[in-house]
From TrEMBL, chain A:
<protein>
    <submittedName>
        <fullName>Sugar ABC transporter permease</fullName>
    </submittedName>
</protein>
<feature type="domain" description="ABC transmembrane type-1">
    <location>
        <begin position="80"/>
        <end position="297"/>
    </location>
</feature>
<dbReference type="InterPro" id="IPR000515">
    <property type="entry name" value="MetI-like"/>
</dbReference>
<keyword id="KW-0813">Transport</keyword>
<feature type="transmembrane region" description="Helical">
    <location>
        <begin position="170"/>
        <end position="195"/>
    </location>
</feature>
<dbReference type="InterPro" id="IPR050809">
    <property type="entry name" value="UgpAE/MalFG_permease"/>
</dbReference>
<dbReference type="InterPro" id="IPR035906">
    <property type="entry name" value="MetI-like_sf"/>
</dbReference>
<feature type="transmembrane region" description="Helical">
    <location>
        <begin position="276"/>
        <end position="298"/>
    </location>
</feature>
<keyword id="KW-1003">Cell membrane</keyword>
Automatic annotation (TrEMBL), chain B:
<keyword id="KW-0732">Signal</keyword>
<comment type="similarity">
    <text>Belongs to the bacterial solute-binding protein 1 family.</text>
</comment>
<dbReference type="InterPro" id="IPR006059">
    <property type="entry name" value="SBP"/>
</dbReference>
<feature type="signal peptide">
    <location>
        <begin position="1"/>
        <end position="18"/>
    </location>
</feature>
<protein>
    <submittedName>
        <fullName>Extracellular solute-binding protein</fullName>
    </submittedName>
</protein>
<dbReference type="Pfam" id="PF13416">
    <property type="entry name" value="SBP_bac_8"/>
</dbReference>
<keyword id="KW-0813">Transport</keyword>
Length: 307, 444
């Protein structure tokens, strides 16, 4: 008895150390690649740091003054509310449409499925600037295909309609672009998860009299929940960090201050106004916000992992 | 374990590289011995000139490199081209670092105050007269000046003027307007539902401020080192109201548009369709995007540069009581980095740039020479004449330390859009004065 139990124990002991050793390179890369910028970010946010400091003048320590000023700025709160709403709407839309496409892929025959998969991969692989440019052209007020189509369909008020003039329709176009670019990832991930749902279980449910909706709600969703959760979490994090798409769309003429999201706000503060300290402070707030928004999901993921 | 080892090696490699690069800065930093004012021949070195965008033609770059090498035996000049888009960012990171700073830099004229007010450029007041003095384009000199000292001088200028469809104006029985109000009436008359009399987006404040300047208004004034936004000044209000009226009665372009490729609007559409505008305002180089289609030597389809003078033409924006309205001039300034380790060589390069030969070369390539003695090199066709005439009357945006912040936050874009949408000019002016004044002084 003693020999049989001690052997695995030592083996387990050796195993227990190995994972940590294997973690070292990843942690080291993270510490160097992320740790230093975050450290610098936090330090900067606690000092007065603008263009003058960049050119060698002393940067006095101001404690949390940058944070209190930023938090007291109504512009920040407008941007935060806008960003969180935009992020949640887009994340849920993306996951919803992605799941729909994944179900569709499972239902159609092989050739159609391959066509679907290839076109989605192409959409996903398209460089972002190129994609946004094409969408901008599609929605162009003068020569855009969208306006032309709407006019052909009888909606003559869309002749020369400017989609970027109002924040709401601006964000509608932005959402179309972002959802279009992120659906393939969700659809393909969920499709992969769907192939793991055993046919016997689905069949058993059907024999028990469950319709397609009930099967999906009570069999499929619980079984692919881990994938759904992580995909939704990633979408939320990604959509909160949206920057370039909005910036590129703003360049085609939009009410800039009313369409800024957090990323654009930081860019304006840091790169535009060279107020590096405030930009750093807002960045830290975004980090906190990301943790706050995604924390419930991370916790449930951890819980599921444990069970 | 192999992964661990290779990762460790990789990290060690990165650290070694980092060590190398930080080690190499020391000799470079200590090698600079030619402080400003040193009269002895400077130590031979390679200096770097940053040009912005592709505006400086290759022929001029070659001339600078060759001439610099001839006049400074043993030294060489390297020219690096930076994109306009991230020029300010690049300058912000490179200028403070003696080991990496370019020695001489081109910077957009309105970007100059951002750097001059912070001490990023070397004081070249003592060279001012030698380089041209009062002959240099004064609006550009002023924007590069702080407390009476010159830090940045004009490199070249462009100007903006009106491009119009002469055939359409003629058909309507209209001739070139001589006052600003005539212009407003003419382009209003020319507007149809499918054609702008004068195509201009609502956010195009760089065009719009001409109406402010024409009425004697200012965007901001300086008093004892403090800047005040003066949108509420009666003259500025008059200008803004005139612009509002002309936008609303003559332009079909949406209020949120800016920097549209207006030159396309003047060209005939596909299959000879009518143009989308009878008049536009644009920088001089827009000429080469306007005209009838033709083939160039390479066989590509290009515009003929307004060859048909019965169809296309240009005129300066007229002033309120005739003459020429002050427009916002495009162009660049040039300056020496304060941290440059080769101040004397950098100054020698400036001498070449401001030499009669180089100034003439600028003009021959269509770039407005900084020194007014050489503007005749631009030629004597209608484009050159209009360019010289409008540039002489041109104005620049305020040389305030926070000007870059105002531009970065798109404040004037927002203001002009709201005016274009029919907002109450007086109320908007008051609201934006309160917003802009602290920004101009670098306070949020």
């Amino acid at each position: 008895m003693t020999t049989t139990t001690s052997a695995p124990r030592t083996r387990r002991g050796r195993r227990a150390r190995l994972p940590y050793v294997l973690l070292i390179p990843a942690v080291a890369v993270l510490a160097v690649g992320m740790g230093y910028p975050v450290y610098w970010q936090i330090t900067t946010s606690l000092h007065t740091y603008g263009l003058a400091q960049q050119f060698g003048q002393p940067a006095p320590f101001v404690g949390l003054a940058n944070y209190t000023r930023i938090l007291g700025d109504e512009r920040l709160w407008a941007v935060v509310v806008r960003s969180v709403l935009f992020c949640l709407v887009n994340a849920f839309l993306t996951v919803g449409i992605g799941v729909g496409v994944a179900l569709l892929m499972r239902a159609v025959n092989r050739i159609v499925r391959v066509v679907l998969q290839v076109s989605m991969l192409l959409a996903w692989a398209m460089p972002m600037v190129a994609a946004v440019t094409v969408w901008k052209w599609l929605f162009d007020w003068r020569t855009g295909v969208v306006n032309w189509l709407l006019v052909q369909l009888g909606a003559t008020s869309y002749d020369q309609h400017n989609w970027f003039a109002q924040p709401l329709s601006f964000f509608f176009v932005a959402s179309v672009i972002i959802v279009w670019m992120s659906v393939p990832f969700v659809a393909l991930s969920v499709f992969a998860a769907l192939t793991q749902v055993p046919d016997e279980v689905v069949e058993a449910a059907r024999i028990d009299g469950a319709g397609p909706v009930a099967t999906f709600r009570w069999i499929t969703v619980p079984m692919i929940r881990p994938v759904l959760a992580i995909v939704l979490l990633l979408q939320i994090i990604w959509d909160l960090r949206v920057f370039a798409q909005i910036r590129l769309l703003q360049d085609s003429g939009a009410p800039v201050s009313e369409t800024n999201l957090l990323g654009n706000f930081i860019f304006e503060l840091g790169i535009g106004r060279q107020d590096f300290a405030s930009a750093a402070a807002v960045s830290i707030l975004v980090l906190a916000l990301t943790v706050l928004v995604s924390w419930p999901y991370v916790r449930s993921l951890l819980k599921e992992d444990r069970s | 374990m192999r992964i661990v080892r290779s990762a460790a090696l990789a990290i060690a490699g990165v650290m070694a590289l980092a060590a190398c690069s930080s080690g190499s800065t020391t000799p470079a930093a200590s090698s600079g011995s030619d402080a400003p004012g040193t009269s002895a021949a400077p130590e031979a070195a390679d200096i770097t000139l940053w040009v912005a965008g592709g505006d400086t033609p290759q022929e001029l770059r070659d001339y600078l490199i060759t001439t610099f090498a001839e006049q400074n035996p043993g030294s060489t000049l390297t020219i690096e081209q930076q994109d306009w888009g991230d020029l300010v960012t690049k300058l912000t990171t490179a200028l403070p670092d003696p080991a990496n700073t370019p020695d001489v830099v081109e910077v957009g004229n309105t970007q100059s105050p951002t750097f001059t007010t912070i001490g990023a450029f070397a004081d070249i007041t003592d060279m001012y007269d030698e380089l041209g003095g009062s002959k240099l384009l004064q609006s550009f000199v002023d924007v590069g000046k702080v407390d009476g000292k010159n830090y940045a001088l004009p490199y070249y200028f462009g100007s903006r003027y009106m491009f119009y469809r002469k055939d359409i104006w003629d058909a309507a029985g209209l001739s070139v307007p001589t006052t600003l109000s005539d212009f407003a009436a003419d382009v209003k008359q020319l507007r149809t539902d499918t054609m702008s009399g004068f195509a201009m987006g609502g956010q195009d404040w760089r065009d719009g401020i001409s109406w402010v300047f024409a009425n004697g208004g200012e965007l901001a004034t300086q008093d004892g080192g403090t800047w005040t936004s003066t949108l509420s000044d009666p003259k500025t209000i008059t200008g803004l109201q005139q612009w509002q009226s002309i936008y609303q009665t003559a332009s079909n372009v949406p209020a949120t548009e800016r920097d549209v490729a207006y030159w396309d609007f003047l060209n005939d559409g596909t299959d000879g369709a009518a143009p989308e505008a009878a008049t536009i305002m644009a920088p001089g180089w827009a000429r080469w995007s306007i005209g009838d289609l033709t083939k160039n030597d390479a066989g590509d389809e290009v515009r003929d540069g307004m060859a048909d003078t019965s169809k296309f033409g240009v005129f300066p924006l007229p002033g309120v009581d005739g003459g020429v309205a002050p427009v916002f001039a495009g162009g660049s300034n040039i300056a020496i980095s304060a941290t440059s380790q080769h101040q004397q060589l950098a100054r020698n390069l400036l001498k070449i740039i401001f030499s009669p030969e180089y100034q003439t070369m600028l003009g021959k390539h269509g770039l407005g020479p900084a020194n007014s003695d050489y503007v005749s090199s631009l030629g004597d066709d209608v484009f050159a004449k209009t360019m010289i005439e409008t540039a002489a009357a041109s104005k620049l945006t305020p040389a305030a330390p926070g000007w870059a912040a105002v531009e970065a936050a798109f404040v004037y874009e927002d203001l002009f859009q709201k005016i274009a949408e029919g907002g109450d000019v007086t109320a908007l002016a008051k609201q934006y004065d309160e917003k802009i004044t602290p920004m101009l002084n670098g306070q949020g």
